[in-house]
Structures are given as C-alpha cells and as structure tokens.
Amino acid sequence: MSFSFDLAVTLQRQTSRMMRSKVIRKRQRDICKRQEIPFDLVIEIIKRLPSKSLMRFKSVSKLCLSIICSQYFTNLSSLPRIYMWLGFDKEKILVSSSSSPGLDGSFVVDQDLTIPAMKGYSVSHVYRGLMCFTNGPNAQIYNTTTRQLVVLPDIEESNIIAKDHKFRKIIYHIAHDSVHDQYKVICIVSRRKSRRIVKILLEHWVFTLGGGVSSGWRKIPSPCPPHTPFTQGLTINGRMYYLGLVPNLLSPVFVRFDIISEEISVLQKAEDAFWCRYYYTEIIEYDGRIAILDHSDLIKDGVTLLWVMEDEVKNMWSKKTLVLHYSQMNMVKTHIVHNMSLRVQGTTRNGDVILVPQHIFRTGHDQIIVLPQVTTLFYVFLYNLQKNQLRKVEIKSNRYHTKRWDVIGLEDIENFMNV
User: Fold this and answer.
1) What is the enclosing helix (H) or strand (E) of 135?
2) Which segments constitute the F-box domain (predicted)?
3) How many helices (H) and strands (E) does the chain have?
4) Residue 136 within a domain
C-alpha cells in the first residue's frame, strides 16, 4: 500500500509539472504571436554572430538555414578580409587577415585556410567568399567560410582542353546569377595552333554550382573574332567583362558575357586607349560602371589613365588623367624599387583599387619571372580613383616571416551557401 501511495504521488507530481510546462510553452507562443520580432531585427541579430556560431545556427531550423544561406544575407557587409599565399621551403599556405581594431587601417593575419587538397593548385579568382583553385585544366571551388571544397568535373567534350599544348590558355571565373540565385563557373579555353600559325581556337563553357548530380559543363557559342583572353574577368550588374587579344589586330576586343542569359557579345572599346601596354591594362569597376585602367606610368610619373563606360549602347566613354600628389608619389617610390611593379587585384566595395607589389624580371617578349618580394613586411596599396588618394595598408603577422608572399584578393562577404 505504501508503494502504491508513493507511486501515485510521483505520477501526480510529474503530471503537474507537465501541465505547468505546457502552460508555460503556450504562454511563450502567445507572447511571440503578440510581440513578433521584426525580420530586420532578426537579421541584425544574426549578422552580429561569428562565423562558427552561424554555421551551428544553420541547423536550428529551416528558417534559420534559409536566412543564413540567402543571397540577401550574403550581400550584407562584413569585415573585409585580405587573402594571401605564403611560400616556405617545403610548403605553400593560404591565410587571411581581418581589419585591425585600431585606427591605423592595417590588417592582421588571423586565419590559416590551408587544406591538403589545394597542394599544387593556385588561386585564379576570389569572388563573394568563393575561391577558384586551378592546376592546368583542373579546377576546384573553395568556400572560405564553410571550408567546403568542390572538385569540378573535367570538360570531356572540349576539343582544346583535353590536349596539353604550349599555346593553350585556360581561365576560370566565378559569377552569380541574381535571377535564379545560382553561382556559375565560366571557363574560357583558347589555343594558337602553333607559333607560326596564328589561328585561334576558342571555347566558352559554363558550370552551375549546386546543380545536382545531373549538372555538367555546357558549351556556349563563342563570339567572333576568335581571341585569347589576357585579363581576368570582372563581374558587375550581372555581366562579366574581359579583354581579349586577336591576331593581326593592334588593339584587343572588349567581350561581355551575360550571366543570366549566357549570351556572349563583342563590344566596342575606347578608341584612344594605349592598348600596346597589355600588362598594365585592366578592367575595373568605377562608381558602379565598367572602366579600363592604364597604370603603366604610375610608379615612374605618378600618372594613371582611366576610361569609364558612360553608355554601353552608344559606346560613350569618358577619359580621365589622374596625377598623384608629390607626397604620395614619394611613398610609392620608397616601397617600389627596381624591377618591381604594381598589379591590379580588383576593387573594394568602397571603390578603392587594390594594387599588389610584384618583384618581376622580364626575360623577353611576354615572358616574366616573378621573384620573391624584397621584404618580409606584407602590404598593399589602395587607390581611390574618385578622390585621387593612394594609401599604403600593412598586413601584420607575428607568426609568418617570408619574402615569398602574394596578395590574391580582398573580400568583405561571408558566404554560407553549400557549393
């Protein structure tokens, strides 16, 4: 009888706790219904969480997963990060640095992104938190936030890429289709038949990331005239642009690839641009528009030429000549010594052109050997063309000391999509 009484009391207490718990949960649901948190406030709360917390937060609910992986959330600004290759005796590592909390505007190396699968590969492109690793015709996409790596399949149907050739050139580029919210990889393959025969073979291929098992490379009709791309593509307003060299033409062609429709067209270009200096000519974004930058005289004379596309349909360009202030010119000459140059490595969201120092040696026409840097101090120059202001930005590190370093990109986006 005592046991039955104790059991009855225990059951009664458990039932009472369950009833109270149901009442509390019901009250919480009622409170949430009456005081619904605005969506903008939810976004503000989520975007303040660190990356590791966001990765765990994705598994809380389908709503959290959809918010964090949405393009809207990806587009939100985060702290800018600079990505670098560092070379040592027996290894090559990939690191990133975040902006320093101080007021000096410097960056601090704080992440090692190296994974074994990238050995033998180089970074060809950084776009919205995604990196494209290439090794000849092989390519991989690496998400710097989730650390997910996807090996792209071979382009088996290509008539050019299958055979290794001395005059073959392969360029991979990542772009985003805003209408279908898809990331696409564009592969441009070109090849000269031989040194004497200047006929160009050209192919364009597109691969959709996250397209499932049935996803594969699709061949896109290439425009005429056949050409060899000599600039890395630039994506702006849903279109990718690049410059290509055509045999027997004095100036390159200006090519546009529509990310959504996947149509390619050759545009007219600025007529008075100095196209003979290909190495110092790059397509950049200027105030939301396509522009062509010639910085061949920046180190010597502090002069930069800029052509801005004012009207793409009417082929209207404006030309600007920028001259550095005397003090800024001295800063450049102090850090850029003999056999050194500056390479354009994209544009920040604030409109600053990223200029990376390079120590190079020219052995002949179009033959360049990249030498180690002259210092173990990491840095880049940021050139704001609208304000005509150039500043040096240091990348500090107490752990790594090497002259074999190169800056491969700057991004201010964390991408949580599954590639």
Assistant:
1) strand 130-135
2) 37-77
3) 7, 26
4) yes
- Give the global pTM: 0.80
SS3 28: helix
Cα 122 to its chain centre, rounded Å, is 14
| Separation of alpha carbons 372 and 395, rounded Å | 17
Give dist(CA 159, CA 164) in Å, integer: 11
Are 37 and 92 contained in the same domain?
A: no
CB 255 within 8 A of CB 223: yes
**Among 14, 39, 68, residue at a domain's last position:** 68
Residue 402's Cβ-side half-sphere holds a number of Cα atoms within 13 Å equal to 17
The burial of 59, by beta-carbon neighbours within 10 Å (0-12 exposed, 13-18 middle, 19 or more buried), is given as: exposed
Q: What share of the chain is helix, strand, coil (3-state, %, to 5)?
A: 20, 40, 40
Are 204 and 219 contacting, i.e. CB atoms less than 8 angstroms apart? yes
Task: Read off the amino acid at residue 285.
Answer: E
Q: How many CB atoms are closer than 10 A to CB 324? A: 19
pLDDT (tens digit, 9 = 90+) per residue, 402-417? 999 999 999 887 776 7
- Give dist(CA 337, CA 272) in Å, integer: 30
Token pair belonging to 376: 């173990």
- Residue 159: CB atoms within 10 A of its CB come to 11
Residue 305 token pair: 């030429």
Residue of 349, 326, 325, 343 lying closest to 380 (CA atoms) = 343
Residue with more model confidence, 285 or 59: 285
In the predicted model, is pLDDT for residue 25 greater than 50?
no
Rounded to whole angstroms, how far apart are CA atoms 308 and 355? Answer: 19
Residues 25 and 174 in one domain: no
- Per DSSP, the residues of 139-155 read EEEEETTT--EEEPPP-
Q: What is the reported pLDDT for 336?
A: 84
Is 357:342 a contact under the CB 8 Å cutoff? yes
C-alpha–C-alpha distance, residues 139 and 149, integer Å: 11
Q: Are 175 and 259 in contact (CB under 8 A)?
A: yes
Q: Is residue 342 part of a domain?
A: no
* Amino acid (one-letter) located at 93: I
Cβ-based neighbours of 59, under 8 Å, separated by 6 or more: 65
Find, among 130, 249, 116, 242, the residue nearest to 187 by Cα: 242
Whether 46 and 148 share a structural domain: no
